[in-house]
């Protein structure tokens, strides 16, 4: 039987919008700390707060919007989120103190939480059901691309232009994303179903219960990646491998780009266990290699293994989160998944930083390798042992 088309006009639009939103985030995350120090003479801890408060804002945006997407409308929510993202980008030009910049970063993060959750929900409804994991894998590559391009673009602009130009480029990208969002066509709930939904701050309305188990495992895996994302550059300085470290995320992103399409197809055909367990092992091996790294080749080999591991776990866990719920709950499931993932990437560096002061970098990465192995057991207990029954119910 011929499979349903995946690369439709609307799929490309929503993936493009997601790429542009994430591109601005990664462009600014590498320069905003330096901006706080140079423009306002902030301390290192204040600069860290300026960078990290964005994630808290993103979490707040997701918590609120998850249950309201289908009330407001999926396209309206996406347009509203991208419009708010562009408007809050303008506020960087108006900030005049560290305190004001922190507020701007929080608001900017909240807008990203709304826009990216809406994009994730929209694409879950655009992708054909028989190609869900494959489609989400391709969609997630938009974030992977931005994570490779954004930091390099931000650092290049930092060397060749003023901060105002960096903020102007961010605004231009945001506006392009808003214009693209207006062209999207996405299935919506009918009026009767919308009328049945409303905002209520309770566990069942803020988090999708069925998506929580896999989101918990994503949180655990996210801590492993947070240890790399936050500390790889400092670790490389200690090892005198700074030049090689500059290529770490390029290798990581390239491996994810090459592997994610076939891991998505493999999950659709064989189930999530076939992908999750090997990827957890690859992630553990990459972190173990990082704990023992002694050369540039070893560092980049660790990047490749971590890319094969976490890079694919992220998209597979996301696919599971939206597969276990009804179409009407996909918005909340998307929000739930990213709340847990953002929490690990946002709060993880602070918690792991405290650990580093006690045990050092090498022991930290050994501990993270052990955590990656534990992810296998956690996934099996929380979801993996039910995969065969779920696939039978879906007719696979």
UniProtKB/TrEMBL annotation:
Keywords on record: Membrane, Transmembrane, Transmembrane helix
Residue ranges of the TM segments: 12-35, 47-65, 77-94, 106-127, 139-159, 165-186, 211-235, 241-259, 271-291, 297-320, 332-352, 364-382
One Pfam family in the UniProt entry: MFS_1
Coiled coil: none
Superkingdom as given in the UniProt entry: Bacteria
Gene3D superfamilies listed in its UniProt record: MFS general substrate transporter like domains
Main location: membrane
Localization in the cell: Membrane
Domain Major facilitator superfamily (MFS) profile: 11-387
Membrane topology: Multi-pass membrane protein
Keyword Transmembrane: yes
PANTHER family attached to this UniProt entry: QUINOLENE RESISTANCE PROTEIN NORA
Protein name: MFS transporter
The species this protein was found in: Aromatoleum petrolei
Taxonomic lineage of the native organism: Bacteria, Pseudomonadati, Pseudomonadota, Betaproteobacteria, Rhodocyclales
